[in-house]
Structure formats: C-alpha cells, structure tokens
Design brief:
By secondary structure, this protein is mostly beta strands. Helix content is about 5%, strand content about 60%. It has one domain: Jelly Rolls. The termini are close together.
C-alpha cells in the first residue's frame, strides 16, 4: 500500500534573524503543531501512522562560556515542558561561533491510542544548561507531516 498524507502543519515563530528571546534553564515553547488523524482513527490503520517532524532553530550568544543548548520534542503535551511524552532530545554545544543554526529531523511512530484521539500534538522546547546569555535569534520553524501506510520502511 502506498503512503497517504493525513495532515501537514507548520509552526513559525520567526522567519528572520531578528528575535531576541533569552534562553535559560527553564524550557521555552518555541514550536507547536497538531496533526489531524481523524481519517484513520478507530480503524485498523491507526497503528500504521508515521510522523515526520523537522525544524530550524537559530541561536546566538555573546559570552565566552560554552553552555549546552537543549532541544526537546514532546507528544501530546501542553505549553509546559514535561506534560507530554518526550520523543526527542538533543544537546548542542555553542563552540567557535556566536551564531548556531540548529536543524532537526525527527520521526515518530505514535501508538494507536494517540492516533484514535483524532489529533496528535507535538511541542518543541529549547533550554540551556545554564543562564549564560544565549538568545533565540531566529529563524525558528517547526513542521510536521502525518502519513499512513504499511510496507517496507
């Protein structure tokens, strides 16, 4: 069976490099997409849904320190980090530059129970290992596609 796209959503906090949001140890919500799965909810295909998430996050810093930047994605959480199921976490070191563009690509195989709820929400958070003058400088985008199908992967 060929894959069929169920939904595609885009979340764009900023498409330029002019943002100035301070990144601290407390995770900040910077991306939010809800993918509609109604077409397969309650069917035998609910277990065959695949989700592709991608994004770009631009951060800058002016200190001599090199703190970690943490990017995390949750499934079916709220605006508060820790309220959903953590599906992705990655840390990046801010070395050799005062600007760090971060690109992410993530896949998820959500359980049928989440698919059967008719929508799967994905939230993207950013934080730092310490409060060291790191700024979310943009661009910031977060995109998701939900598809269904079975076959070789």
């Amino acid at each position: 069976m060929a894959f069929k796209v169920l939904d595609m959503r885009l979340s764009q906090l900023s498409n330029t490099d002019t943002g100035t949001l301070n990144i601290e140890e407390t995770p900040i919500l910077i991306g939010d997409v809800g993918l509609i799965t109604t077409a397969v909810a309650g069917t035998a295909q609910a277990g065959d849904v695949r989700v592709w998430l991608s994004g770009t996050v631009g951060v800058g810093y002016g200190s001599a320190e090199e703190p970690e930047i943490l990017i995390r994605i949750e499934r079916n959480g709220t605006e508060t980090f820790g309220s959903g199921t953590l599906i992705y976490t990655e840390s990046f070191l801010t070395v050799f530059s005062n600007f760090l563009p971060i690109s992410i690509t993530v896949t998820d195989f959500p359980p049928a129970t989440d698919v059967n709820a008719n929508q799967i929400r994905y939230t993207l958070f950013i934080s730092s290992s310490e409060n060291a003058g790191i700024e979310l400088s943009g661009p910031v985008t977060f995109n998701g596609i939900a598809a269904v199908g079975a076959g070789p992967f």
